Structure formats: C-alpha cells, structure tokens
Amino acid sequence: MVAHKANMVHLGTSASPFSLLDVRTSQTISLPEQKGDLATLIMFLSNHCPYVKHVRNELVRITADYTPKGVQVMAINANDAESYPVEEPEVMRSLAQECAFPFPYLYDPSQEAAKLYGASCTPDFFLFDANLQLAYHGQLDASRPDNDHPLTGGDLRDALYKTGANEPVDQNQQPSSGSPIKWRLT
Fold first, then answer.
1. 0.90 exceeded by pTM
2. Which of 15, 34, 111, 156 is the most buried (most CB within 10 A)?
C-alpha cells in the first residue's frame, strides 16, 4: 500500500465557503454558517480508503472530546461516485450509521469543495481557528495501517488543544497521507 501525501496549504489561508448535503440527515450544511465557536475541523474522508478505515474510531473519539468545547467537525467525501460506487451517498449514509459518526458526512459530487481546499488524499485534515483561518493542515498522528505506531490522534489533538486555547500551533506540520482522492475524468 503506497501512501499519497497531502498537498500542503499555506497556514493562515481562509476557509472557503460551501453548501453540501449531509447524507446522515439529508440537510444542507453550509460554511461559514456552521463554523465552531473555537475552531472548525474539516476532514476529507472516503468510504473505502484503508487509511480512513484505520482512523475512523479515533475520529469519532476526537469529535466527542472536542465538540463540547466549541469545535465544529465536518467530513467531506469528494471521491468520484460514478467510477467508484462504494462512494455513493447511500453507502456513505450506511457507513455513517454503522460507525456512529457524530459529525456531518458531506457529499461533494462536483468535487468543488475538495478543489477549493486543495485536498488531495483521504484522510486530509484542515483545522481552522475561530476566524476560519487555517491553523493546522497535517497528519492525525504517525500511525498508518501498515506500521506499529499507536493510533492516538496526537498531532491533531495537540493542534485542536492549542487552537482552542488560542495558542500558536507548531508550524512544522507533517502532511497527512492516505489514498489519493478519486477525481472525476472530464
């Protein structure tokens, strides 16, 4: 399994607005309307990516730990569902129920949100401060499906803590790695 590294995005970049369908509730979720009071975490995920499968339970735990503190968490699936039917909204909804996702699981059929954010792999994490300025764009932690590092969410948890405490986040961020986003061929 060869990991694809995330494209690094400049810290301080403003979050791009979007309106996407939450497959769990069939409601439209919009940013900046749904931003968190302290921070907003936007994650690009996939239904079938082995790297995402490896971290799903930790993402649920992180959301449970940080949502009560004022962090809004959202996940976006931008994979081409026509070429990869496992990424269709119905499958997303079933997976969200099965995994008890406490965060919106948004469908990006045009892939426009992924392009605006510069997302390139799954998982890909974008943590914005209260003013929707990018504070962290790095890995969850050093754990991967094919290594022995413990799955702790340590890198992202540290960034969440510091962003919520209005402390500077370490600028030396290790990029996330995973499966490349499945782009639609046009």
1. yes
2. 156
Phi-psi region of 111 (alpha: psi -120 to 50; beta: other; left: phi over 0): left
Cα-based angle 99, 104, 109 (whole degrees, multiple of 5): 105
Which amino acid is present at 128? F
* Cα distance between residue 74 and residue 51, in whole Å: 18
Residue recorded with tokens 């045009």? 110
Q: Which residues sit opposite 28 in a β-bridge? A: 21
Given strand 4-5, what is the order of strands in its sheet?
A: 4-5, 177-180, 121-122
Q: Tally DSSP H helices, then E strands, for the chain.
A: 4, 10
The residue type found at 147 is N
Spatial distance between the Cα atoms of 103 and 41, rounded to a whole number of angstroms:
10
- Three-state DSSP at 75 gives strand
Residue 168: both structure tokens together: 């500077």
Query: Distance of CA 182 to CAs 26, 57, 78, 179, Å?
Result: 23, 23, 8, 9
pLDDT digits (tens, 9 = 90+) for 141-163: 999 998 999 999 999 999 999 99
